Amino acid sequence: MMHHETNGLLAAPGAEAPLGHHYEVDGRRLLLHQSGTGGPSVVILPGAGFTGLDYLNLHERVSAFTSCVLYDRAGTGWSDRVALPRTAAEVVTELRGLLRAAGVPAPYVLVGHSLGGAYIHRFAQMFPEDVAGLLWLEGFHAAWNDHMPEELHLEAQSDLPELDEDMLAGMRDWVEGMYARWPDGIRELLIEERLRPDWVRVGARERSSMIELATELRTHAHAGLPDVPLIACSGTGLDPGQDVFLSEELIGRLNGGKQAMDRALADSVPRGEYRVLDGASHSTVHIDRTDDVVRAIHDLVERADR
């Protein structure tokens, strides 16, 4: 497959993706990077404001024992522009087409970080035969409001201020720490991209439809989740910036709500398991507790029906 020039929404003008190839799906070029052999293949669905390369640390470890896929949704990273936000059905239909175009055979172990949790849920509703396992990694749930204090209901999220350029500049040390172990070239690229206001705006656009996403998932809840191994992981750490917007007491209730929500999800299916990742923050759970996340993925691969 020819590697085209890139013109993604987040990537700086003229920048080329350091890894992966573009595949055309419904007239759009989407970036996908695959390594490893065997199956079931692991597919990582990024959170809002993240791209596939943010999970390169997981990819390198997972591809040692099975095929692993990183990708950028349309409108993000090094994939073509698209109006945001989109429905979960649009996102997962696009992903399924991309995996087929790239020759990645089903079924898949789907890893959903943050907003990616909504998308793995909708994928499982729409294409259950293509799912071998599910990992919610601090992942979004339709039942968010059922477990959160009213101040943190989805309807209240729009009242939280966005990070401005001064606040982004103040986060440079934290961002540099995030990518400290990424390869040269990729590390510097991701640091600069993440500190650009455009990056933040794209993440905000994707997150702006969380109420609609929850409704979409609940509307199709009759489809249920397929009978596959499922692990739900929640962290207990503090994300930088949370203490700017939230009180210490409210942060504690937020973490408690996430733990109850993830436990309820795991308990709702025959082969569900709940795991606490102590000290891991929401944004960097896959970096703070890499070994544990890789272990969870490995367990799902091993437990998957062959």
TrEMBL record:
Pfam families: Abhydrolase_6 (PF12697). GO terms for cellular component: membrane. Coiled coil: none annotated. Residues 42-296 form the AB hydrolase-1 domain. One of its GO terms (molecular function) is catalytic activity. InterPro entries: AB_hydrolase_1, AB_hydrolase_fold, AB_hydrolase_sf. PANTHER family: HYDROLASE, PUTATIVE (AFU_ORTHOLOGUE AFUA_2G14860)-RELATED, MONOACYLGLYCEROL LIPASE. This is Pimeloyl-ACP methyl ester carboxylesterase. It comes from Lipingzhangella halophila.
